[in-house]
Amino acid sequence: MNISIVLILLLAGAAFTFFAGNKFASKIALLVSVASFVFTLYALNLYLNGADLSCKSIWIQNPKIYFSLAVDGLSLAMLLLTTGLLPLIILSGWVTKFENEKAIYSLVLFMAFAMAGTFLAADGLLYYVFWELALIPIYFIALLWGNGSLEERKNAILKFFIYTFGGSLFMLVAFVYLYQKAGSLEIESLYALALTETEKTWLFLAFFLAYAIKIPLIPFHTWQANTYSKAPAIGTMLLSGIMLKMGLYSVLRWQLPITDTAAKEFMPYILGVSIAGVIYGAVLTLRQKNLKKLLAYSSLSHVGLIAAGLYSLTIEGFQGAVLQMLSHGLVIVGLFFVSEIIFNRWNTYTISEMGGIRSQATKFASFFMILVLASVAMPTTFNFVGEFTILYSLYNVNIGFAIVAGTTIILGAFYMLRMYQQTMLGETNTKVFADVTIVEGLVLLVIVVLVFFFGLYPKPIIELITPSLQNILNQIN
Amino acid sequence: MQSILEQVGIGNYIILSALLFCIGAFGILYRRNAIIMFMSIEIMLNAVNLLLVAFSTYHQDASGQVFVFFTMAVAAAEVAVGLAILVSIYRNIGNIDIDNLKNLKG
Amino acid sequence: MNTTSLIVLLFAPLIGFLINVFFGRKMSKNLSGVVGTASVLLSFVITLLLFFSVKQPITLHLSEWFSIGKLAVNFDFVFDQLSILWLLFVTGIGTLIHIYSISYMHDDENMYKFFAYLNLFIFFMITLVAGSNLLIMFIGWEGVGLCSYLLIGFWYKNQDYNDAAKKAFIMNRIGDLGFLIGIFILGFATNTLEFSGIQQAIDVDGVVSTSGWYSIAAFCLFVGACGKSAQLPLYTWLPDAMAGPTPVSALIHAATMVTAGIFMITRMNFLFDIAPIVQNIIAVVGVTTALVAASIGLVQNDIKKVLAYSTVSQLGLMFLALGLGAYQVAVFHVITHAFFKACLFLGSGSVIHALHGEQDMRKMGGLRGSMKITYITFLIATLAIAGLPPFAGFWSKDEILLTAFHENKVLWVLATIASIMTAFYMFRLLYLTFFNEFRGTEEQKKHLHESPSLITFPLIVLAVLSALGGLISLPFGNSWLNHYLMPIFAHKEHAEHHLGATEYGLMAFAVLGALIGIGIAYNLYMKKKEVPTSDEVQGLHKVLSNKYYIDEIYMAIIVTPIYGLASFSKNFIEKYISKSVFGLGNVVSVLSIQGKKVQNGNVGFYLFAFVFSISAFLIYLFLIR
Asked: How far is Cα C339 from Cα C377, in angstroms, rounded to an integer?
């Protein structure tokens, strides 16, 4: 077996879902996503037993481009995140009634296909194609099934599309240049390439623009909050849970190893920008009236911390960043699902219209509380391991960075608890709020269990990712 | 016996056709009447034809003259189409002053 | 002791929590109370067995947690004298308060949740105390903070209570950041987070090479302790935390959780010993807190607020002892304080229960007659906290004063003033609550009653302990406590103060001070029968009533600027960035609008452009190039 089976499964699943018709689309999509997850687990098992799962064949003769997928611990971890979150995301869609279900579910699967491809691709052009391919489905998902008026939606989504697409073009330029130099875009040959420091600086900046927009780092984040609030929950989950991690993953896989000296040179500045983003995102949440926007800015804050971990160029930073990518993916999907559950009941995202839910929906309140606690990195949750590791790596760089970035645990607690208080607590609301249904409960339960499980036993993941991270670090040094 | 070309000299032919071409070009830029502009275009075309014939003789190569026949044939067709367009413009707006043709803008 | 019983000791409260969370709603109220109590009692019994059997520290390795870089963190626990001592009174007082709560919370519809949270709290407290490395301690540290949050905001329908809960959590988090940074420094410097490992590393290289970083680490840990143990400048959450049910105030905000900071510093004593500057800071912060909180306590009218400020003040005294390096004295005061303060809180709870939720002392009075047991136990605890012999508080407080006297006279004077104030406001509370006429409504008066035995039983036990607790460390040589804790402080020379004339003089002076405080209170509230009024207080009194305006100051210099920054970011920076992104798009559209003008439909112009460009091109090709 090689890993392309997972990709083929997702792609075929997307087509099959579309042709299965509206009636069965959601069920088939779930089935496909579960199957892809099972296959990923099987691949993981094979990988741990030392099997080679990579796949390589010539794609374009001239220029020489390979259809090349490589598997290591890091990409497997990201693949697990993708295919693991996918069933949850699809199941969460069951709660909402979509028009033209076959289209949306097939787009979701197609997007998962593109994102999984991004995490696996080992040839620059292939990677770039997957990277851009992932934009197309989310554009349609957000445009056709989003919230708010069509005009607003169009504006927000178009801005997002052009913004990220424009950033990526710089990456394409970088790849074209690299091809000129190396005569191939295979990741191995790019790693082996000897470049001058000036070249690396320019390449670094070109990559940085693409990734800074995608991650997003300040000041490239302005697409985020609007897109998140306009996209339907299912799209927001895909965006925040998985797509953001594409940028972070790419930093690790492509940017840092190829442009190592520039990365070292720029490290303090980019750490500064990332950490400024941590504070800035956290501060902005305090003035948000819309629950989804609040979560979007909290995500900005968390992602800034992850980026800081990556750009710290230490093994601890890498480990922490990857752990935090996984845990943030889980928790943010849960939180957006929570906001969707409230929206389904009360048809609003406005925080001031909420409140007094806890007394009506105990289970829901408990799930929400646990997610909030995970988001503020309570020890024993998965997020704590990641956040602790990242902050520790920042301390290794400079104590000042650790202290400033560490304020996230204060500000995070501030805005998350404030949000929880405003949405859930207080006198029983006059509007009726039904407690979670079985499907909703199942999604939240899985997330909560995973958050605690990996919070107490993160060892398998750390062991999975550490060797490949060590390779990347060696490549940088 | 000297041929005409040798008597006159290739340089004069070039100057003549350049002059003709400039007259045509100037006419196009200066005049506003579509018919006259059309004629200016024909002058330019014929300047080129003259040059082609002259060089064809100069180089003892008949292919230049073949080209001239081609050009003349195409020019004749062009005049037929062009004049038809002018007539229809005249029918529409009552004159053929090109300053009145701003509707061509998209 | 075998491993199984240790695991039971650790996890019994967690099991209790899980049972109550998942099945609590279906169980009867009494059953959930019994489950909660039994699980803690089980831990207590095992701790007792441990206490009598363990001579050497035993460690318990559960599993690995994670390892990053060179740092490996495991779920390891250590049961040595210090942790067993702490476990003993945590689970012991915990059991009593669980028993108390069965009756106290009986009317609450969410009683099972209450017991669930209490059990969870005990679980995290055990984790905190028994953890054998800093990060396990940190789990407990954050966990008790969480439980404190949940329990302060237990009546979540009241947003003021939720605010108090949130405030407690966030202020604790400020301290936690300090704690984390301390962990980073120690982890980086020593490559381990185990207490024993750090101690070894410090013994090897501490004083010589990197003592600067160790001092910073000690300071950071102290910041953490400040948050959890409510010291200046992070103490303001504790008085607000009285929004929670009274048993919570007794258990978490008086007896156990707030002493976590003292526990941590005692646990890390080897680190603080090599950082004398930090020790000085601790002593100064401690005595200042004691003084400030006691002075605010003088004028409070809410019975629980008085006790809360008194807790802050007493914690300050403990920190003074820590700062002076007298760890065993601080531990001694922690224990006696746990006894009498729990007793006081539970007594006040009993009063509040009898008055159906009234907390204002101005509307109490004369309860001596109708609530005999509550009154007597309360009296004993008050005598203990005021520092009258032979009650427990006298011995422990006197040791602190004695140490301060030997180390630094200024600290001694300040601590003595704080003690006199304590005696005053505690007797003020006693007189206002239990003496003179009842000042509440007739309706309340009819229903005045002694609380049921589930409430009075814990009171009696705690009162006995408040009376006799001093026996564990009498100053006449051969203190049992000092001897018991010897292994923890093994590395330093042990100094028990030799009792000379000075010491006896100081004791007498301390008693005299307490009597002065009591005398003033007696004069004001018994002889003149004054009842404090809320309106029109002037001068210093007004400043004290408003708690030195510290909350307002924090609001003005921290919270408001953050909100201001948020507004500024949202309304200005965010817009500006957004505009500049759109600006790029606008550049394109402006260019295209300008470019569109070229295509004006004028045939003449097109021809001109055509001819001109061709000519220019030809000129360039043939003439210029």
From this structure: 11
